[in-house]
Amino acid sequence: MLIRVLFAATFLALPIAAQADGRAEIRAKCQADVKANCGMVLSRDKAISCLIDNAAKLSGGCKTALEKASCSDQAPANLKAAFACKQ
Fold it and tell me: pLDDT tens digit string along 36-45?
């Protein structure tokens, strides 16, 4: 139960860029990827960094959600560099 709460808290606090482009979509499509590749992540920055570090291992749905998020002007530079904007 605690892991679910921490997981939910991490994805509820995703960067503004992710929120603007569908926080719920990223949470839904990347939750399993974070769990599989990152373990317990307690901050949004670490979650995004971990997803970027493991980009080659991510599911197609998660990659697509991150590509959409990278289109935002407010997306972090590391997200834009790792995932080309696709709308």
Answer: 999 887 788 8
